[in-house]
C-alpha cells in the first residue's frame, strides 16, 4: 500500500482510498481529498511535517499523520 506520505516532492498521485474514521476522515474530506482526486506534492518540510500539496487548484498543507491515511496510486 502506497500512501501520500511516500510520494516524493514534484510528483502527482491519485487517491484510491481514505483510511481512518470519524472526525479524522471528515477533516481530510473537508480539504477536498476524496477518491479519484489528483494530488500534486509541491514541497515537503525537512522533517517531513507538513507536506504542502495542490488539490483541485488549492494549495494546502497536510500533516504527516494525515498523509499516512491517504492511499494513492
UniProtKB/TrEMBL annotation:
InterPro entries (UniProt xref): Fe-transptr_FeoA-like (IPR007167), FeoA (IPR052713), FeoA_core_dom (IPR038157), Transcriptional_repressor_C (IPR008988)
Gene3D superfamilies recorded: 2.30.30.90
Alphabetical UniProt keywords: Iron
Domain Ferrous iron transporter FeoA-like: 2-73
Coiled coil: none
PANTHER family: FE(2+) TRANSPORT PROTEIN A
Protein name: Ferrous iron transport protein A
Origin species: Acetobacterium malicum
